Amino acid sequence: MSWMSMMLTALLCLNISVPNMVQSDYTENPIMETPVMRINVYMMGMIEVDPEITVLVNENIDFLNEEFEGVIEFEFNQFFMDHGQAYLPDLHKEYMNFEEASTIDALIKPIEVEGAINVFLFDTYAIHGTNQALMGFTPRLKAQQETYQLNSPNFDRIFMAYEGLDNKSTLVHEMGHFLGLNHPWELSGSKKMAFGIRTNADESHNHMSYGPDVNKFTAQQLESMRKHALQYRKYLMDRVVSTYART
Ligand SMILES: [Zn+2]
Q1: 1 vs 23, which has greater pLDDT?
Q2: Ligand 1 centroid – CA 58 distance (Å)
Q3: How far is the CA of 115 from the centre of ligand 1 (A)?
Q4: Contacts of 112 (CB under 8 A, 6+ apart)
Q5: pLDDT confidence of 31, banded at 50, 70, 90?
Q6: 94 CA distance to ligand 1 centroid (A)?
Q7: For helices 169-178 and 51-67, what crossing angle results, to 10°?
Q8: Which ranges of the chain does DSSP label H, i.e. alpha helix?
Q9: SS3 state at 164
Q10: Residue 73: CA atoms inside 13 Å, Cβ hemisphere, count?
Q11: How much of the chain, in percent, has pLDDT values that exceed 70?
Q12: Which tens digit of pLDDT belongs to each residue from 101-130?
């Protein structure tokens, strides 16, 4: 083998081993952009680390990544602990009523950091006379979504109950809201179809429904969330992974 052909072989091998994820030709448009979003978790009302909750949080983020199927990726960034305490249903009521003396702001403003999806964990309680309890809520803009960054970190929050960590679906559902999805029953028939929710079974299994059967997003929902993230939530991303077609 001549020196030249050895070089060629080496180059050829190198070429073949270049994975698709590498930006090999900057003049090309990527065929896919995958947002990688940061998550901070705030353990409210806690002053000591509870290893069980730490493990649960990690399992929740693993499950979140499974259910988003690599279309969007989530990276755990940082834990915070704070003695500030409140009950999730009370905070929700306050948020819905636009009450002026806001417990939410008093508790959260001093500790929240910018640049990540901030998940705040609180205790919850059952609605009087039932065994149902609020497990999470996610404040968001109904219009002018391009102002999310301007309003940061006010709308970078997900509120969740510690108890909501147990089924792992709560965080997935709330992240759906965070990235622009509504409950199926809030959608018109044609909108539901456009999101790939065609049958009652599709609806009851969908992460944006309530109940024990939820286990998936549709491909259309995932794509809608990916676009929403890239359009409005880039400031919460660690990076965007570009996939280029090989030519
Ligand atoms: Zn919901």
Answers
A1: 23
A2: 22
A3: 24
A4: 42, 118, 153, 156, 157
A5: confident
A6: 17
A7: 60
A8: 3-17, 51-67, 88-96, 103-108, 169-178, 189-194, 200-205, 219-232
A9: helix
A10: 12
A11: 88
A12: 689 999 999 999 999 999 999 999 998 888
Which amino acid type is present at position 246?
R
Residue 24's Cβ-count burial label (10 Å; 0-12, 13-18, 19+) is: middle
Q: 209, 184 in Cβ contact below 8 A?
A: yes
CA of 169 to the centre of ligand 1 (A): 11
> Which residue type occupies 71?
V
Instruction: Give me the residue spans of the domains in the chain.
Output: 34-169+222-241
**Distance from the alpha carbon of residue 174 to the mean position of ligand 1, in angstroms:** 6
Distance between CA atoms of 209 and 99, rounded to whole angstroms?
Answer: 28
- CB < 8 Å & 24+ apart, contacts of 57-62: 57/165, 59/168, 60/165, 60/168, 60/171, 61/171
Ligand 1: distance of its center to the CA of 210 in Å?
A: 8
Computed over every residue of the chain, the mean pLDDT equals 89
Quickly tell me which residue has 């901030």 as its tokens.
118
CA of 136 to the centre of ligand 1 (A): 8
Residue 27 pLDDT grade (very low, low, confident, very high; cuts 50, 70, 90): low
Ligand 1 center from residue 168 Cα (angstroms): 14
Ligand 1 centroid vs 141 CA: distance in angstroms? 15
